Amino acid sequence: MTLAEKLALVVLVTCACAVVSTASPLDPDRYFLVEAEPRAQPEDYRLNDDVWPTHYDIEIKPYLEQEGNKAQFTFDGSAKITVSTQKQNVMQIKLHMARMDITAWSVTRKSDNTIIPTLPQTYDQETQILTLPLSSALQANVEYVLSFTYVGNMDDDMHGFYRSYYWEDGVKVWMGSTQFQQTHARRAFPCFDEPRFKATFQLKINHKTQYNVYSNTAIVGTAVAEVGRSLTTFGVTPSMSSYLIAFIVAPYQINDRDGMGILARPQAQNQTQYSLDVGIKLLKALEEWIDYPYASVAGMTRMYMAAVPDFSAGAMENWGLLTYRETNILYRSDDSTSMQQHRIAAVISHEIAHQWFGDLVTCEWWDVTWLNEGFARYYQYYGTALVETEWDLDHQFVVEQLQGVMQMDSLRSTHPMTHPVYTQAQTSGIFDNISYNKGAVMLRMMEHYLTTETFKTALRAYIKDRAFKTTRPEDLFNALNRYDPNARSYMEPWTVQPGYPLVTVTSHDTGFTITQKRFLVNEPDHNEQTAWPLPITFATKASEFSITRPAFYTGMTFEIPMQGASDVEYFILNNQQVGYYRVNYDAILWGKISKALHSEGFGGIHVLNRAQIVDDLFNLARGDVVPYGTALEILEYLKEETEYAPWLAAVNGLTTLSRRIHADDEKLFTAHILDIFSKAYDIVKFQAPTATERRIFTYMRQNVLQWACNYGHEECSKAAVAEFHRYHQNPSVKVHPDLRQVVYCEGIRKGSTEEFEFLWNQYLTTNVATEQILILQGLGCVSSSELITDMLNGIASPHVRSQDKNNAFTYVINNPYTLPHVSRYLQQNHANWAASHGSYTNVASAFNNVLARLKSDSERDAISAFIESNKNILGQAAYDSIKTGLEDYETNKQFTLRNRDEIHEFLDNKINGGAATILANVSMIVGLLMLVLAR
């Protein structure tokens, strides 16, 4: 039986056995949720504040195999919740529960165990609120105990207390783990499942003796529960929110030292040392920075970090028991790339930072998620930089976080950082780049305004003030205002208004006129009057780029006076891109900037401002603010660029542009790409990193080789294919991890079924999760219809875990050749895809990702005909989603047609007309921009 036949059989068997689930989990950093209108009033999704919990006693007894009449993947549970009220006439108690059967419940007065008479409970399936009516009112300031016994389910959707597995010597080993954020603690025990309801917890787990158990706090007792079972009791937790409880039931092993331990399956223990080493350093560094020792919190005597095979998020900050995808914590230097090591350190720093910003001090509700995630994302870079000092993380922050979130935040569909949410889908959706990236960007902006030392002092005070409490933005603003009375007025507008401004600079003899207007990439002519306090810095020569403490200006228009303004070499706004805005310049200033970029040493323009200019030009052209011809002429300077940050900004811009290039201009665009990457390729060379090169130079090599090979650079392709063939012939001698992505991709692109089956077998047999990701990236470069089908069958099969399916699909469709084949596959195998991915919502997402990259009207028409013929099967939500994708296809097509002539003229002149001189380039730029200013 061939590989294709095997995969097809696996898919059919999988789909035949599949049960319908509510939805497959999505990574909030990558995917938007498709949400129907709320089916209840918004306020009905929130608990009232009549009753507050103070302590939970919970006992969980999981069944990872059938035991008597106990079904596999269920658990028995009991919960006793101590509650009280400060109100009069409280006649009912509302709390959450989901996906469990409550077999008994009662309410008693704690002081004397008096039973409080109750009426039959009611349950709202939509809001997941359980209402317990009482026959007599609760007394104010008296403690009561809510007691529940229940049966829960260990589902496989990576939410609540769920089941996962790994393979050991060919045997599937089942385990249990948790993921409660945002609203899934209620699937493990009845609870007040909102972050404001903080309480202490004591957990007991009744488990088979062959399993080890772990939770937030240390084990304080173990007893024999029954034959073959132990009852393990954990210490009482600090007062914390329900979403932070965590527990694991698994035959794991631990690598521990100095109060920290890495938990992993036995076969992965050889991949835990780096995480342990860097985790210990990061915990110490962040403790010192925040000036609040982790161990000073009662119960936090150690920190465990666990590698979980199936995990919907990247990682989770459960107090004392942090959980991670294996790819985000397990590392081997001979099998993981430099970037994967970087990712592991950064994610660990992010989660450790949450021990203060999220666990100790917790956002009051998910409408201000940024108060948790913005800080964690900030320390993901600047905390890691305290330990890994040679990685230029400040450079990476600007392109990855600030410029990254600008894409989403330039759309009308964006939202403010502080934004109302009610439903489960809304609370999940708020965990997006606005809460993470933009939150971190605002913190960096305020750090540069206040100075680092003042910023640190203010945050230390904020943490001490709000410890063991919840927080709202005004609490943070008040802390900052103690050290600068303008801090709130400067920061708050950025948190409550969506989007960001485009700042336009016009020069005159005595200075510069600055105007601001919200940047909406698809609506350049809008009349919205939103304004922000603008953090302004500027440079007219190399030495001034180090001045990053801004002065804030308010108003739609203001002046920056300067004697001899017309004589400056250039005028560049927003030093090191500390402020969150784009900048457009008049023709004269763009001309000066271009001349400087094309001169020796780039005219002294700081590397982060070069990255800023690159990103701004691509997006100003995309937004019809600067002509594409002008932008591309200025960006020709990239042929001499040698730094990672500007190249990363360029790769981001070129990725978007490549999807909008007219099909008839693909050859010209290919020649353009090979030209601008030519010198960079000669600098980085197709070689493994040297011991002395900068880390970001290694990252730059990976980008340059990937683009060069993808666009047919002969030397790159030849070297990659030769290395793949060498590896194929002798798999015991591996490809250097930092070359694997391009080697695997090119080997598969230029290879046959033999190469595909070889690499797929490597995927199935490797013990290293980071290597699996590299292989999936390589397999996505398939270039024949048969192998595309094999790859898609593989993604739909159980061989690719649910957490990796969306990424694996993205790797395939980022290969433009595959798009028509993928479209036809989805039409023919939609039922299989829905079953393997969880719902038809995922089918819609797959079609929409294809439509976003397609350039073929005939393929568009085929998708349109398919959804009309299968509307009833797809369901209304999926059908409507794909209809929106078809509309977006048309918008993208019109964009391509509108800009085609200008882009074609630039490419044709460049490729077929010879290289122009710098002076001619500048003259063209000035001329074109004069036309822009005139129209």
TrEMBL record:
Catalytic activity: Release of an N-terminal amino acid, Xaa-|-Yaa- from a peptide, amide or arylamide. Xaa is preferably Ala, but may be most amino acids including Pro (slow action). When a terminal hydrophobic residue is followed by a prolyl residue, the two may be released as an intact Xaa-Pro dipeptide
Assigned GO CC terms: extracellular space; plasma membrane; side of membrane
Subcellular location per the Swiss-Prot or TrEMBL entry: Cell membrane
Cofactor note: Binds 1 zinc ion per subunit.
Residues of the ERAP1-like C-terminal domain: 571-887
Main localization category: membrane
TM segment ranges: 913-934
EC numbers, comma separated: 3.4.11.-
Annotated positions for site Transition state stabilizer: 436
Any one GO BP annotation for this protein: proteolysis
Cofactor: Zn(2+)
PANTHER family: AMINOPEPTIDASE, PROTEASE M1 ZINC METALLOPROTEASE
Name this polypeptide is given: Aminopeptidase
Lineage summary: Eukaryota, Metazoa, Ecdysozoa, Arthropoda, Hexapoda
